[in-house]
Design a protein that fits this description.
With about 260 residues, the chain is of the alpha/beta class. Helices cover about 35% and strands about 25% of the residues. It folds into two domains: about 110 residues, Rossmann fold (3-Layer(aba) Sandwich), CATH 3.40.50.11220; about 140 residues, Nucleotidyltransferase, domain 5. It has ten helices and eleven strands. The strands form two sheets. A six-stranded mixed beta sheet has the order 2-1-3-4-5-6, sandwiched between helices. Strands 9-8-7-11-10 form a five-stranded mixed beta sheet.
Length: about 260
């Protein structure tokens, strides 16, 4: 999660769970005994913090209703019961990444993920996208790749492929990394990458002016995840595709992870 995370609780049991979550969730803070509760939650939401609310969903809905704006801009919100048995992505499930975040947290807590979208019965296929400067070393790329897995709590076995733009078809560092990881290395042309433009988390004018798309790593990951899933409809695949990890970068390279959902 690439934003501050605020955890709110209302009961003693909830507070104990919140303190446990602080140890599990990076960049998180428990606002214990936050009063007035509604105002504190709304303020955190309006400043763009991701929220974990340990309370009833009804309380969460009534608290956040006055400050909701758009699923395209609202931060992700999870609701947990005070025993930590259920994890519910309440807001910004797709666009804000709450679904993916909830899944990771449920796995960490060994809790039940409660998805209210159609994806609740679907199997995810993960793909990694990478971009880099010419001649970037395999070692540098491998370190960034591992960082991406660590941030998403994914394993190498979860990843379907390593991907980039077609002008990187001969990029030795990426080719060698894929070979070491025993992953297919795929590249896609600009026309295919442009299809997923609405799903990008950011748009770089510099990258667009250089290669013709607004982001290499995110675009390649999204297209590859879609390509790994069989479907009669490209629109259906597009609807079932999302970023699990928004682009992270070093001075030399970028990486992102996407997933598409496959009917089991």
């Amino acid at each position: 999660m690439n934003r501050p995370i605020k955890i709110f609780s209302l009961t003693a049991s909830g507070a104990r769970l919140a303190e446990r979550l602080v140890d599990l969730v990076e960049n998180s803070e428990h606002l214990a005994n936050a009063k007035p509760f509604a105002q504190q939650v709304q303020t955190a939401f309006q400043q763009g913090d991701a929220l974990i609310l340990i309370c009833a969903t009804g309380i969460a809905v009534r608290t956040l209703a006055p400050v909701l704006q758009s699923k395209l801009t609202d931060p992700p919100v999870l609701v947990l019961d005070e025993q930590g048995q259920f994890v519910i992505p309440l807001l910004s499930g797709h666009e804000g990444g709450a679904n993916a975040w909830a899944q990771r947290l449920a796995e960490q807590l060994q809790a039940q993920l409660v998805l209210t979208t159609a994806k609740g019965y679907l199997k995810p296929v993960y793909a990694v996208g990478m971009g880099c400067e010419r001649g970037c070393s395999k070692e540098h790329l491998a370190e960034l790749f591992q960082q991406a897995l660590t941030q998403t709590n994914l394993k190498l076995a979860d990843i379907n492929s390593l991907n980039s733009i077609d002008i990187k078809a001969d990029e030795q560092g990426l080719i060698e990394l894929a070979d070491d990881l025993k992953l297919p290395y795929q590249t896609f042309d600009v026309d295919r990458l442009k299809v997923v433009e609405p799903l990008l988390s950011t748009r770089s004018e510099y990258v667009y002016n250089t290669v013709g798309v607004y982001g290499v790593a995110e675009s390649a990951a999204l297209v590859a995840a879609m390509a790994a899933v069989s479907s009669d409809s490209n629109q259906q695949k597009l609807n079932n595709t999302e970023l699990v990890l928004n682009k992270i970068k070093t001075p030399k390279a970028t990486v992102a992870i996407a997933r598409c959902f496959l009917d089991e």
